[in-house]
Amino acid sequence: MESRSVESNGMSLEYFSFGNGPQVLLCFHGFGRRAEDFFYFREELEKNFTVYSFNVFHHGKSEYPGDRIERNTLRPDELKALISLFLDQHSIERFSLMGYSMGGKITLMLLHLFAERINHMYLLAPDGIVYNQWYRFTSKNRIGNSIYKSILRKPGFFFFILRLLRKTRLISDKFMRFVMANLDTRNKRELVYKVWMTLRNIDPSPSESSKIIRKLNLPVYLFYGKHDRIIKSSSGKSFASKAGDSVRFIEVECGHNLFTPDTKSCLKKVFSIE
β-strands 49-54, 23-28: how paired? Predict the structure, then answer.
């Protein structure tokens, strides 16, 4: 399947499309993943939606200016302009959103930017519904940024600390494996740095997100893995309690990876209700 791109101000977002349903769904993947991930739910989505699945900056063929990664980085108004251009190109007035992990934070930012135009939201183990203090420290604080750069160059001491924390049970084996899988090579560590820095201003307020959802009585479906040690389901339960009765919390028998048969089954039930 061929991809297309929307381009503005030196940036481009690659996207794929499938389905011919009457509603429009925009999808955003997790870190180190890809737009094609959402093809896994093709059977569940394509009858209800025309789906556009995007590669986030620094993934696939999506491009972001290298000279803007550390300074003058992406602003919410620029993200709005880029997505608005895409919507105009496809004559889309209203749409729904789906985001997984890191893509959940982008999805929530779009909620802030396009609140009155959104029909439904489907959030899969989303980042962005609680503040990530480590992320804010490394991406927005000069000292934290320097620490991460030193890890990028010489990660040995950082890995030693991780192993020590695992032995003392301050972090789980699953969390340890997740971190190592994303930081075990220099290319992966550089990708983390580029993505974190590029998206550091795409940081929606969780309290404001819940206020918007309550005000609009927006249907939101929160999917969490029961055994997820990366983004724990307890954060979803807390957010759901604050965001109102239009939010439905769904716990799936899996870990952080929600691209599973159980999630497919849950989506089928959701769409049959709608």
Answer: parallel
